[in-house]
Amino acid sequence: MNRLDTGLIERLEEKFGEAVKPRESIDFTTIVVDPEHLLALAEFLKAAEGYQMFNDVLVVDWFPSRPRFEVVYQVFHPEKIMRLRFKSFVGENQPLPSLVGVFEGANWPEREAYDLFGVVFEGHPDLTRIYLPDDWEGHPLRKDYPTGGNRID
Amino acid sequence: MIRLTIDDQEIEVREGTMIADAAARLGIDIPVYCYHEALGPLGACRMCLVGVEKMPKLATACTTAVQDGMVVHTYGEAVDKGRKGVLEFLLINHPLDCPVCDKGGECFLQDYTFQYGPPKGRFKEPKIQKVKDGPINEFVLIDQERCVLCQRCVRFMDEYVGEPQLLLDGRGVETVVTTVDGVPATSQFSGNVIDLCPVGALLSAPYQHKGRPWNIERQESVCTMCPVGCTTLATGRDGHIVRIEGRPVPDRSWGWLCDRGRFGYDYATDPTRLTISFLHANPEAAARTTRQVGHWMSDVMRDAGPDSIAVVMGGLHTVEEAHQVHAFAKNVIGTSRLSISRDVPGYVPRVLNGTYADIADADTILLVGVDPYEAVPVVHLKLRERQKSKRPVKILAVAPRDLSRDSLDVNTLITHAGQEAQVLGWALSQGMGTHPAVKKLAATAPVGVADEDLTALSEALGSSEHLTILWDGLQNEVGSVLAALADARGEKATRILPTWGPSNWRGFERAGFSADFDALTSLLEDARAGKIQMLMTFGADLLREYPDERLVREALQKVPHVVFEGLFRPTEPSLYGAQLPQAGPGEVAGTYVNMEARLLSATPSVTPPGQARPVKSYLTAWAHALNKPFVADDDWDPYGDDTADLLPFDGIQAKVWALKPPNLGNASGMELVTGALVIENGIPSHILEPRAPKFPGRISPQDAEILGIVGQGLVRLGKDGREIRVPVTVDERMTPGRIFVPLGMASCPVNRLGLGAVEVARLEEVPTT
Amino acid sequence: MILLQTIFLIIKIVLLIGILMGGFAYATLLERRLLGFFQLRLGPNRVGPGGLLQPIADGLKMALKEDLMPNGADPFVYRLAPVVALFAALSVDAVIPFGAPVHLFGLTVYLDIANPSIGLLIAFAFSSLGVYGLVLGGWASQNKYSLLGGIRASAQIISYELAMGLAVLGVIMTTGTANLYDIVVYQHHHGWLWLPQIGAFLIYFVTGIAETNRTPFDLPEAESELVAGYHTEYSGMRFASYYIAEYVNMITVSGLAVTLFFGGWLGPWLPPIIWFFIKIGIFLFIFIWIRATLPRFRYDKLMNFGWKFLLPAALIYFLATALFVSGVL
Amino acid sequence: MATKEMRAERDPALTDETMVINLGPQHPSTHGVLRVRLTLDGERVVKAEPVIGYLHTGFEKTAETLTYQQCNTITDRLDYLAPMTNNLAFVLAVERMMDIEVPKRAQYVRVLFSELTRVASHLVWLGTHVMDLGAMSLFFYCMREREVILDLIEAAAGVRMNPSYFRVGGLAYDLPEGFHEKVRDFLKDFPRWMTTYRNLVDGNPLINERLVGISLLDRQTCYQYGVTGPNMRATGLALDLRKDEPYCYYDEFEFAVPTRTQCDAYARFWVRVEEIYESMKIIDQVLGKISPQGEYATTDRKVSLPPRDEIYGNMEALIHQFKLVTAGFPVPQGEVYQAVEGPRGEMGFYLVSDGGPKPYRWRARTPSYYNLQTMPIIAKDGLVADVITAIGSIDIMLGDVDK
Amino acid sequence: MLDGVKAIAKGMATTFKALSEPRDTYPYPEKRREYSPRFRGKHMLARDADGHELCVGCGLCEAVCPAHAIRVVAAEAPSDQPVSWTSRYSVDYEVDLIRCIFCGMCEEACPTNAVRLTPFNELAAYDRETMIADKEELLRPAIRK
User: Fold this and answer.
1) Residues C14-48 as b or e (16 or more Cβ within 10 Å = b)
2) Residues forming a β-bridge with B394
3) What is the CA radius of gyration of chain C?
4) What is the domain count for chain E?
5) Is residue B444 part of a domain?
6) Which residues in chain B touch residue E86, judged by CB atoms under 8 angstroms apart?
7) Are the beta carbons of E116 and E35 closer than 8 angstroms?
8) What CATH number does the domain containing B189 carry?
9) A132, D245: Cβ pair inside 8 Å?
């Protein structure tokens, strides 16, 4: 079940050096990458390593620790049937490069991340809210977003 | 320092530390029932078994002191087995009560069984039957079947509070916790055993079956019953507060509460609570009251100018609300007649610098007039903890009545009522007479006080390295003495804690009000002179709170428009043109200030009842009526820029002036002595009714004999043609010739008479209450 | 005499409209019940025995519904369109003979409203008018779906009208008359025309379905694409008018098919008028059956089918008939 | 095009003769509240932009307030036509994080219901897709057999649509009595109905011309957009998580992964139809492997509820019941991504736990969301009718898309 | 061309055959389908053999309800007139059937087997108040207010 891409970490470290750090995980290869190298890493993974199938972009809010957002990308290797997760940590007002140029499918998930968490992706063709109305205030999936609201009887 | 290893983590701790505490510092959770840091180790429950290398058997972490090089394992096969065994034994006779037990969901027995216990017990034998739902007193229920005999409650009452009203009875499986001789526990700290009980054995009677952890809202709050400012957790359900629990704050508080604070939460639903607004005590006009007040305001401002509107701020508002009122009065009305309702001794704040840490650090503690047990109960616990600690402490008192009791050893210098300043001043001049500040006091020798007592007091004041003073604030002149004392003691720490409440005025200073003693008096005198057209009181029932009732009454009768905003109906509703309901503590978010001048944030757990609204909504409505902009500065933060939560008092200098000799009155009557009683602080509570003293007045047995009172009776106190009736009881600790009547009781308003000598006569009829 | 004829005429008009309305009402019921049965359901059976009163309930519902008009719609055209559709649909039936002529009070009463010698052409002329109702309604609704529906309707009906006209020309040539009464009489003598004119009949039937905008040619409505096409915005009795028009058109197309190819009222044992309606009923059943089975054409495929297949096929068949009639073949 | 260019020469302002039309959010064939903003040139689609969010209910936020066992009820509602596979992905993720051993029989039952749910989901797709094309009856025929499957689900789980039958640790209840026979009856009866369906669509020129060559979705686009499931397999890629990342002992079953290479709606159509046959094969094999009654959940009482008779007499069991239902079980800190092959593609859950009884982050990687994203590509240059075909043929589920 | 006609004919034949298949729907109120014994419909509060309520108001159902549809208010039972089999009972027990998702977790959670989901499922009502089933209603299953 857990297929690990042997040698991938070494190849990545060779290419990106300190910017890429492997992270222990119970499911599949996970690496943490500096936001500056995110785009380059994604391109490298897609072009050179064959992780050409996009899987997901999602955000975890670690409020109140800093940097608060953990942006997780998942890609898939359709020939080797292997998954790879890479993530970057960004602060509240820190933009992240958009991966739409590499994986077009990142379009909606990035919009979703912007909509629900307020993570800004630079270079996104249409970074607008996707689920919520355009005039919505706040980003509901943030941990500090007030819940409860009014009881409707 | 000792180094040891717990679960592969190394830690260095002080010698004598228990393994449990060392583990807690590492964040390792060791289950335990009997151990509580404030109560010390016992080793009764055997729950905290840990494996220690080189020890043949498992050791209890709460009683085993650390040793150098110790290697401790808090998990592993042996430990798990030990814990499973202990839990299985604890549950042999435990009734299947989880569904009906109020503790369900907050119960350590459940938590530990789920975490460490066996999935299924092997005992099928019938369980031993014991008393269920038996009362400890009116507030605490005991279910002996559920008890795991950790003895926390017994030890708390016995060792910590010093009122041994609970004990362990019986042997073996028949052992139960019960009250002494079946007499209900009377201690005003009895409620704490509910918090202490790790299982569902001791339960709150008022909270019985009221809520569950999942259907309640628990918010961090602050107790506003007295100036101690205990941190609490307020539990709200369905729009009502149903429970108050203590909230420990690391290094500051164990989370103890007195029963007043713990069970007095039902004031919010009291029938005397104002929930709709009135015009001239006329409920019909409720809808337009707020608007009508705005019209009055506009009329007065047009006809008599803004300065004829006076604003008095009471103590149960948050600091933020005070700030809004101040901003409204200054910017929208433009009046300068602003005051705080309590007669704040404006000349002392410079030296009101004590904190609770000063009680723990002091070598001498002086109580001026205040009986901590009655007025600020949790401070009493702090004093007792201080007295029990290894370092010696002297607790002195200068008061018109004996303040010593079984649980606290206080060396009281008994003075005449109103003579405290003179006694202290004279004692000061005996020891430090050369200091210019003391000279300025020009103290004269007091009468009726033994010289050796004065000398002892003088020595204690002079020699103490860390002197902490608790002052009841009833006699203004004491402030002058304390200022001189602090001045004269120079570098040596002199810390003063004001014990009169509510203590929010210290926060109101930050909100913009000036803490000037004469402000309220001159404001009332102006009102009596007809200079004020409109008086607005926020959360202050002046008739009950101000020391001179006559002045207030005359002033209120003179002012055409009196607006009252408060939690409860005012003492004499007919004096007020409009009454508006206040959103009280637990209903508004905000900051309160305690006697340490510490800012304490409270989060609301319920919404205000009826038409009660935060002050801001009234202010906004009036500003609308006045056609003036009012922007409530919601971003204003009483904490200011600095993150410290203790308010600084830099602006006002301590004042020292010559003491006037006290007026001790004619010898024929008795001396009226008074003091705060937290249970009678003017906030009604149905739950606490059994605790409220039916005979609040106290007289000495000798006087009782003279008056012909046996046990309890009703007396009439008279002075200058004014009189009050007081039900009294005989108190051994009272000095002959003194009668004690608590402050602020609506049934016997002591402020109608004022301090000093009064005529006392027994009334034949016995009050029916 | 003229008076009597006039009275008969009025009675016939009233009867015809009554029959058509009743036919429409029960055609809807028949359709819904039948569709139910095709789809393993029961269909409407709650109102009256077996749902027989359902049409009345529907009619009441329609009559009581609020008449809505979208903002920005052209009020005159919007109101006019359903009337045009209904008028056109009803008018066609004026020339279709329902049964053999009967003799009453010494008069030979033809069971049609009018019996012009160019009856067939009149029928075609009026049925072509119907498309105006659709186009105008779609245009006037101020709704993009309706507009698309209206446009589709006009294009579709124009495309299929040609093939349809060519198909029936074969009948006219064979019988030598455009009078529907005479066509039936011809069939009485020479046998029903469906077998000799099988190609024409098939083309007529397919185009007939298209003319009535039924599945698989229901593009102007196209529930799953255009919501309801040209009548998306209509409600109440105006919607009912379109609804009636559709079903009356179905009856008309069936009636013409019966008249032209299946011997009209001809048939043994039963009275002619019953035969006529039985034949119409069979056609209605087939309409419904097709609807239950077939998916919808795509718009461009529909046009291709009409222009590239039906029209040449109709032309070829027309040519063949012409050659046959003229004795060349 | 020529005419357009000619017009442009005359008056550049007139070149834009497009019309924007909102397909949805209330539309008969958008299968929920999808809105597609179509830019039309006549009936030809110039641009199709899906606008979503009309069904957004904030499941991800809600889940953060619920215990893991309660979260299960939310997963039902994502892709409500295939609730069991959603359940499965979620419980497998939690089980993986907690490292729980689930009885093999329970895993087989999970396979059984996953496949039943896949058949049911494909039946709804078949019915609605063909109904979108205009043919009505097939929908009802499909519903008839789906009803049989729902009855089976009801017999086991108690409800038809949102069963929450799989729980962390196993199943909520054991299989009911006579369940095997009921499934066998279904298996016996169903092929006849499959023939009926095929009779209606097989070779039907009207259907074929609506599907062949329509809404092309090629393999690169699938890679780019993360399109999975039958849509991807219609590009000739035999990727199926049941084979490639087997869970629940799927590797013990024999089944094929149907693929086509035409990349069009027709290919997707037949991939799905063939998948129904493969699922039937699996169901048949599962029935041979499981006993009618037996172990259905882990006996670890720190995860699954104690048996009811123990609750009434045993203190430890009562406490475990109390804590499990009120507080839930804690899940070790960490993160996990677990995907299963749902009827619509890769249904995955990314869970982050902070060690508490409620998920810290609950992310559903719902296949329809990624499949729908290709809408602008597959609907472009088609006709309005092809947009409908496209929506139907990528088989989206708005509960899945909007979360 | 011919294949197409044949396919269409096959389709037509299929639908025609359906006319003779058994109907798959019921005339609902007269004939109802049978539900599985596990069917989760409206809630009921059970009583024991003596007629005492089994519910003790412990609120586990309230805690476990993922939709927050249940509200329980408990109280000490009057000692002279036992309502439940123990000293505690539920004064107020409301199930908001609008919110309820019929997941059956309350039934699983109940430590006294008091809450049960009956197969009764005809829940439609004209207003929201009716959809909130109170205790009285729940004690008599299958009856709407």
Assistant:
1) eebeeebbebbbbbbbbbbbbbbbbbbbbbbbeee
2) B364
3) 20
4) 1
5) yes
6) 100
7) no
8) 3.30.70.20
9) no
Could A105 and D224 be called an inter-chain contact, meaning their C-beta atoms sit closer than 8 Å?
yes
Instruction: Copy the structure tokens of residue D228.
Output: 């999975």
Q: How far apart are CA D341 and CA B676, in angstroms?
A: 73
Q: Is residue B535 part of a domain?
A: yes
3-class secondary structure, C312: helix
Give the DSSP letter string of C171-235. Answer: HHHHHS---HHHHHHHHHHH--STTTTHHHHHHHHHHHHHHTT-TTS-TTT-HHHHTTGGGTT--
Per-residue confidence band for E145, with pLDDT thresholds at 50, 70 and 90: very low
Residue D48 near residue D379, CB atoms below 8 Å: yes
CATH of the domain at B22: 3.10.20.740
Q: Test E56 with B105 for CB contact under 8 angstroms.
A: no
The label of the residue with tokens 């500096």 reads: A34
Backbone phi and psi for residue B264, each to the nearest 5 degrees, phi listed first: -90, 25
Residue B395's Cα: distance from chain center in Å? 20
In angstroms, how far apart are the furthest CA atoms of chain E?
89
How far is C151 from C154, CA to CA, in rounded Å? 5
CA B324, distance to chain mean position in Å, is 26
CA–CA distance, D382 with D389 (Å, rounded to integer):
10
For chain A, what is the radius of gyration of the CA atoms? 17
Interface test mutation site (partner E, options B102, B129, B208, B209, max chain E beta carbons within 10 A): B209
Residue D96 is inside which H or E element, if any?
helix D83-98
Are residues A108 and D369, on separate chains, in Cβ contact within 8 Å? yes
* Residue B604 near residue B586 (C-beta atoms within 8 A): yes
Q: How far is B530 from chain E (nearest CA, A)?
A: 56
Q: Assess contact for C311 and C201: CB atoms under 8 A.
A: no
Give the residue from chain D lying closest to A50, CA to CA. D223
Q: pLDDT per residue over B457-510, tens digit each?
A: 998 888 889 999 998 888 878 888 888 888 888 888 888 888 887 778 778 878
Structure tokens at A133: 């109305």
Whether B and C touch, i.e. at least 3 CB pairs below 8 A, reads as no
Can you tell me the distance from the alpha carbon of B91 to that of D391, in angstroms, rounded to the nearest whole number? 61
Query: Mean pLDDT across chain C, nearest whole number?
Result: 83
Q: How many domains does chain B have?
A: 5
pTM here is 0.85
DSSP β-bridge partners for residue E93: E72
Among C39, C42, C289, select the one facing E27 at the smallest CB separation.
C42
High-pLDDT (> 70) share of chain A, %: 93
Record the tokens describing residue D138, joined without a space. Answer: 């097939």
* E64: containing domain: 34-139
Are D135 and C297 a contacting pair at CB < 8 A? no
Which of D300, D301, D303, D318 to probe the B interface (max B CBs under 10 A)? Answer: D318
Q: Which secondary structure element, helix H or strand E, spans residue A77, and what is its range?
A: strand A69-77
* Domain extent for B243: 128-269
Q: How does DSSP assign D184-250, residue by residue?
A: HHHHHHHHHHHHHHHHHHTT-HHHHHHHTT-S---HHHHHHHT--THHHHTTT----HHHHS--TTG
Q: Do B96 and D320 touch (CB under 8 A)?
A: no
Same domain, B363 and B434: yes
**Averaged pLDDT of chain D:** 87
H-state helical runs in chain A: 8-16, 38-47, 107-117
SS3 B535: strand
DSSP assignment letter at B381: H
The average pLDDT across B423-445 equals: 85
Alpha carbons D355 and D332: distance in angstroms, whole number: 5
Query: Do chain D and chain C touch with ≥3 beta carbon pairs under 8 Å?
Result: yes
Of D239, D336, D369, the CB nearest to A26: D336
Amino acid at B366: L
The one-letter amino acid at C286: I
Do B339 and B415 sit in the same domain of this protein? no
Same-domain status, B133 and B165 = yes
